[in-house]
Structures are given as structure tokens and as C-alpha cells.
Design a protein that fits this description.
This protein is α+β, with helices and mostly antiparallel strands and 226 residues long. It is built from 9 helices and 7 strands, in the order ααααααβββββαββαα. The chain folds into 2 domains: 47-101, no CATH class; 109-225, no CATH class. Helices cover 49% and strands 17% of the residues.
Length: 226
């Protein structure tokens, strides 16, 4: 079966009943190795933007954003393809929005230590469904506390209940991997909607401010798999 991403479950919720069945049936099919390798090696539309934001989170220095913008502008000048120019311009627009964003809002005041990820391809099994979990940064602070940040980008951005699914599974993954030796600080389990320059923490879900549809979505997906 194809690997399942939270993006796939978000899209699943938007579909009609017939389209949901089609999507689930497609997931049942094994991907030929050649196709799998081709997909795995494909470029990410937002990679320039997201890589800059990861560096910004680590350094708290907007210079890294300005440098990336200038680099992308030079690449625009050197490519004849309109599609490529459009992609670079879209990335520049998103990066520009974060120049005025105070990255310290989503970080603890204490010094953080970036942790090496426990798995190369993180995943979590929920109700026998294996789902990809790909936080960009996992870090520790105050000796025993864990936080993370996950930059998520798509054109048009996400609704709050969609963003909640990313936040929910991120917290569950951190709990599974790190909770024996660390406290998962829900104020700093953060997902960022890059397109809308907004963010959510797991505390908002824990406190009932936002409801995550993750469990219900997985249950519906599983029923159609049978």
C-alpha cells in the first residue's frame, strides 16, 4: 500500500463519498519500484521557502530570509522557464511574509538544543494505519522538555481543523518516541501554516479550543480499506 501522509487525510476529508472510495482504492495499490524512486526523488515546490524558514527558526536572524530571497531572484534571472520563475516567485512571496514575523513567539525563552531525529522516515501507526510524520525540527530545553516545529505549505493554506491534524499526529509521535525520558511541552508542539503565516500549538487542542478530526478521519479511511 502507498505511504499515507497527513496531507492525504486532509484531502480525503474534502472529497465526496465516491471520490473517497477511489482514493482509498488507489492507496491499496503497490507502487512499482521505479515509480516509487521517481516520486521519492522529486522536488518539493516549497523547498526553498521551507529551508529558509528552518534556518530562520534556528538562528532568529532575518538575514537568512533576505539571502534566500536574493538567491531566488538570481535564479529567476537565469532560467527561461516561466513555470520555474513562477515557483521561485511563489517561494519569495512566502518568505517575505516571515520577515516581519517574530520567530521567538513559537520558541521557549530558554536555550534550545536541536535533536537528531530518531528515524530517517518518521511514521506512526494509529488504528493499524501507518502515517508519515515529518516535523522539521525537534528540540529539547530545560534539560527534560521537548518541543518541535513543523512548517507546512500549500497554496491557499489550511483551515484550523486541517492544521489540527498535523499538530495532533506530531504530538502523538513525540509522545511515542520521547516521553519516557522527556516531558512533551504542548505549548511548543507547533505547526506553522506557511501560506497564511499562522501557527497552532497542541495546547490549543488539549485545552479544547480546537478539535482535531484525526481519529474520525482515520476511522472512516479504515472502514473503506476493508
Amino acid at each position: 500500500m502507498k505511504k499515507i501522509r497527513i496531507h492525504d487525510l486532509v484531502n480525503f476529508n474534502k472529497k465526496s463519498e465516491r471520490s473517497k472510495i477511489t482514493q482509498v482504492n488507489n492507496f491499496k495499490k503497490e507502487i512499482p519500484e521505479v515509480e516509487k524512486n521517481k516520486k521519492d526523488s522529486g522536488g518539493d515546490y516549497w523547498i526553498s521557502c521551507n529551508s529558509a524558514l528552518i534556518k530562520y527558526f534556528k538562528t532568529e536572524d532575518t538575514k537568512v530570509l533576505n539571502h534566500k530571497i536574493e538567491h531566488l531572484k538570481s535564479m529567476i534571472d537565469n532560467t527561461p522557464r516561466k513555470q520555474t520563475k513562477d515557483r521561485f516567485n511563489s517561494n519569495i512571496d512566502r518568505i517575505n511574509n516571515f520577515i516581519s514575523f517574530n520567530i521567538k513567539e513559537i520558541k521557549p525563552s530558554e536555550e534550545i538544543k536541536i535533536l537528531k531525529k530518531e528515524e530517517k522516515y518518521p511514521k506512526l501507526k494509529i488504528n493499524d494505519l501507518t502515517i508519515e510524520v515529518k516535523p522539521d525540527i525537534i528540540y529539547s530545553f530545560n534539560d527534560d522538555e521537548i518541543g518541535s516545529v513543523w512548517f507546512i505549505t500549500k497554496k491557499g493554506g489550511f483551515k484550523s481543523n486541517e492544521l489540527a491534524m498535523f499538530c495532533d499526529i506530531n504530538f502523538r509521535y513525540l509522545t511515542k518516541v520521547y516521553s519516557e525520558k522527556h516531558n512533551i511541552n504542548t505549548d511548543f508542539v507547533t505547526v506553522i501554516d506557511v501560506f497564511n503565516t499562522s501557527y497552532m500549538t497542541y495546547s490549543q487542542i488539549k485545552d479544547g479550543e480546537i478539535i482535531s478530526p484525526l481519529n474520525n478521519t482515520i476511522e472512516e479511511f479504515k472502514k473503506l480499506l476493508r
